[in-house]
Amino acid sequence: GENVEQHPSTLSVQEGDSAVIKCTYSDSASNYFPWYKQELGKRPQLIIDIRSNVGEKKDQRIAVTLNKTAKHFSLHITETQPEDSAVYFCAASITGKLIFGQGTELSVKP
Amino acid sequence: AAGVIQSPRHLIKEKRETATLKCYPIPRHDTVYWYQQGPGQDPQFLISFYEKMQSDKGSIPDRFSAQQFSDYHSELNMSSLELGDSALYFCASSLGAQRPYEQYFGPGTRLTVT
């Protein structure tokens, strides 16, 4: 079955710096790759997604890139703010069910 | 905008008891997914429904069952509860045909088994 690996597990940056989180997936048939932000005890919130027919997508300070050949996708957050601090999950999907990565705890220090 | 509703938000049960979790998807959404999230872990897919039919099944124990009703709400029934069932249970919904796979999560039900 599909497996998603996510790195790093923790990431600490200074406010204003950029943050990059990387994921790899195992099943080349995966065609949908969302990213979720989850604060402690809260629901995962969809922040951006990308489908397999697109290489890059941007939404204000957030961008996602997809390399289908290498089976890699990455989340880029620019001009980080303290409110960006949370756990970020990548996921991959073939049939709708989401297979999540292990999560990255992002800490943005003022 | 209306979001996914889950009830109850918190539930405390004893071992071997049963529990029923309810999920009300975003209006017009026809697909419901259930996920289980243990402390410090990523969400694990349990089961999904599209147009009231089971569409996929993950690591759901045989002690659990679920269904989607004619109004698209879904219920997850859990029997013979074990300590290891303590977790956050999330329901997510999507507009399956038009926005496939784009899922929005409810606030979750925190189940504690003692």
Estimate percent helicity of chain A.
Answer: under 10%
State the end-to-end CA separation of chain B: 37 Å
Structural class of chain B: mainly beta
Sketch the major β-sheet of chain B.
Answer: 7 strands, mixed
Radius of gyration of chain A: 13 Å
**Residue share in helix of chain B:** under 10%
Instruction: Extract low-pLDDT stretches of chain A.
Output: none
Give a short synopsis of this structure.
The complex is a heterodimer of chains A (110) and B (114). With 110 residues, chain A is mostly beta strands. Helix content of chain A is 0%, strand content 55%.
What does this structure look like?
The complex is a heterodimer of chains A (110) and B (114). Chain A contains no helices and 11 strands. In chain A, the strands form 2 sheets. In chain A, strands 2, 4, 5, 9, 10 and 11 form a 6-stranded mixed β-sheet that branches. In chain A, strands 1-3-8-7-6 form a 5-stranded antiparallel β-sheet, with no helix packed on it. With 110 residues, chain A is an all-beta fold. Chain B has 114 residues and is mostly beta strands. Chain B has strands at 5-7, 10-13, 19-24, 31-37, 44-50, 53-57, 64-68, 74-78, 87-94, 104-105, 109-113. Chain B starts with a strand and ends with a strand. In chain B, strands 2, 4, 5, 6, 9, 10 and 11 form a 7-stranded mixed β-sheet that branches. A 4-stranded antiparallel β-sheet of chain B has the order 1-3-8-7, with no helix packed on it. In chain B, a hairpin with a 2-residue loop joins strand 5 and strand 6. The radius of gyration of chain B is 13 Å and the shape is globular.
